[in-house]
Design a protein that fits this description.
Helix 2 (about 65-95) packs parallel to helix 3 (about 115-130). The protein has one domain (about 10-130): Ribosomal Protein S5, domain 2 (2-Layer Sandwich). The longest helix is centred in the middle third of the chain and has 27 residues, at about 65-95. Helix content is about 40%, strand content about 20%. By secondary structure, it is an alpha+beta fold. The radius of gyration is 14 Å and the shape is globular. It has helices at about 20-25, 65-95, 115-130; strands at about 30-35, 35-45, 55-60, 100-105. Belongs to the RnpA family. Keywords: Endonuclease, Hydrolase, Nuclease, RNA-binding, tRNA processing. It catalyses: Endonucleolytic cleavage of RNA, removing 5'-extranucleotides from tRNA precursor.
Length: about 130
């Protein structure tokens, strides 16, 4: 079983660099979907100051006009990542010097229960680990 302290979602794991976001969406990335979430990810060289995985969660205003619903969807995706990030972290441990930038994008026009969001995020992380 993974270390319980690894089941956190720290500030260092949040993608805050606009430059990194532009690189992720400009090109040189891979994408996969597991409804209701799509993941866009990119490998990058690891830096000693940053976390091995940096995550961005986005829910478009086009899908949910009310911020309450957007925030709920983002919270569900963040929680699903927090609980399943050991899948991708284990794969990255086998490749030292490699870090990963991931953007989770919400695809659906409706809210889904947390169990289905968790299953789709776990599926995406397993598929990403296989690609690495």
């Amino acid at each position: 079983m993974p270390d319980p302290s690894s089941h956190t979602f720290s500030k260092q794991e949040r993608m805050t660099s606009r430059k990194l976001m532009e690189q992720l969406f400009a090109g040189g990335h891979r994408s996969m979907a597991a409804f209701p979430v799509r993941a866009v990810f990119m490998e990058m060289p690891a830096d000693s100051k940053m976390a091995p995985v940096q995550v961005l969660v986005s829910v478009s205003k086009r899908h949910f006009k009310r911020a309450v619903k957007r925030n709920r969807a983002k919270r569900q995706v963040r929680e699903a990542f927090r609980q399943n990030k050991h899948i991708i972290c284990d794969a990255l441990r086998e490749r030292p010097g490699t870090a990963l930038a991931i953007a989770f994008l919400w695809l659906s026009d409706s809210l889904h229960d947390s169990r289905s969001v968790d299953a789709s995020v776990a599926s995406l992380l397993r598929r990403m680990a296989e690609k690495l």
